[in-house]
Specification:
about 80 residues, single chain, three-stranded parallel sheet, alpha/beta, Flavoprotein-like_sf, two-stranded parallel sheet, 2 helices
């Protein structure tokens, strides 16, 4: 699965294992990562909300840009 964009929002209370697994998955699949993942531990706060909004905005901008996918690159506008 090449020429794909990837990012994720992770929510957890105890362990952040999903974050590590999803990051490894994206690297193995040669996806272009849009921003760093947004991690929410236990509950939403202002910082998480701002990061989630920035991630969504960056993903929308990247999708509408029409630019070629660059594997193993992290893009955040």
């Amino acid at each position: 699965m090449k020429n794909k964009f990837f990012s994720f929002f992770s929510g957890h209370t105890w362990a952040d294992g999903a974050k590590r697994e999803l990051k490894a998955f994206a690297e193995g699949m040669e996806f272009e990562t849009i921003c760093e993942s947004v991690e929410m531990k236990q509950s939403l706060n202002r910082n998480v909300m701002e990061n989630a909004y920035a991630l969504g905005k960056a993903m929308a901008e990247r999708l509408h840009s029409g630019d070629a996918v660059i594997p193993h690159k992290t893009t955040c506008h």
